[in-house]
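WP5 quarterly update. Target: Aldolase. Source organism: Kocuria marina. Length: 448 aa.
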Amino acid sequence: MPTGFGHRADLLLAGTDADLARFHPGDAGARQPVHTCYVPADLVSEQTPAQWGEASSSAAEEAGGLAALAELAGIDAAAAPDLVARVGEKLRTEPVEDLRLDLEDGYGERPDAEEDADAVRAARTVAAFARNRATGAAPASAGIRFKCFEAATRDRGLRTLDLFLSTLVREGGLRETGISADGLPEGLVLTLPKVSAVEQVAVMVEACLALEDALGLPTGRLRFEIQMETPDMILGPDGTCPIPAMLRAAEGRVSALHYGTYDYSASLGISGRFQSLEHPAADHAMNVMQVAVAGTGVNLSDGSTNRLPVGDPAQRRETWALHSRLVRRSLERGFYQGWDLHAHQLPTRHLTNYAFYRDAFDDAARRLVAYAGRSVPGIETADVADEPATARALACYAVRGLLCGAVGEDELRATGLDPETVRAVANPGAAASSSAGDRSSPETGEIA
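Structure tokens (predicted):
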């Protein structure tokens, strides 16, 4: 290699390095909710999460208890009493992880004065959630879904967004209580639906900039998630996938992409009876989304099932079994968040999530301990030769289980692993200063 070529390589790749750092920063390590619950905004109060928890527990009791629902979900409740007990506690303390006050499809078209009032009320409710998190069953994240930026609803969507954020900052009282320095709560989520063109995302960025300026917020404070409900966002008119261009246009403001089961299916002409998360069209769309956001730090969520467990006992059993199967299917495919539309879906959501994170927890911990203990290059003493990328995936799995409450830190420590170290492995950015070759003994629980 000629002398100085390394310096020339640095110069040639400087722009590429900058783009990779900007557009593919990796997972930031923030908590991702296991679900988003959608409720029409005019039906939400600060008591809604607790009411959903109570309704879900009552529905489970009517069906014979959480253990009976676990059996419907294919979980051996007798062999997993801790799982059932943990889900019972979850339904009491944090039944809803993420709540979206809906001012779009679930809300419908209303007179402007009525939607104005509901947008203001939604802001006050989200502020109440922030105040209640330390003491009540408040969601860890909450926000609104406003109307899309297609011509017919654009003005209404922008007006609702403005009213909601202005009220939250100016009247939410979060500054006065010391909860927030800028008036916005942690965990605030704004949902932009029915995106059909990159230009709509660019307009949302401009709207965020204008609102930040008007409300005295730091530039970049407002982020949003995008609902993938149109085929144009999977395959553009030029034959390419628009998602990378959309994320670049968003300038780092996109927090998540959510698949819209029914709008997307209907747009492809799929009959209502066959619209489902299990349809091949859904798999294709979500696979494209998954590849497009890999490494970007943007979260993914699957959609909902509109089959609700609210009928007679037989209908409820069938529908709970379906819901559990869909949740498990998505988890196994790397989609760790979904939508729930009714309180009765919460028991199977949490039972299935907890089973997913507990089923392979011992194996994941064993493999992480074995990976940490590798000291002789080329000589494997474990039965699985995990690469660093797989070690990160195992650590992410363990961290997700910790965050949703499926497993406890005491259980992780009992395996010889330190929770903070596992979190650092799951989030490479936080551990970037560590040497990739430094691995300590399994007794310390440290992994590079």
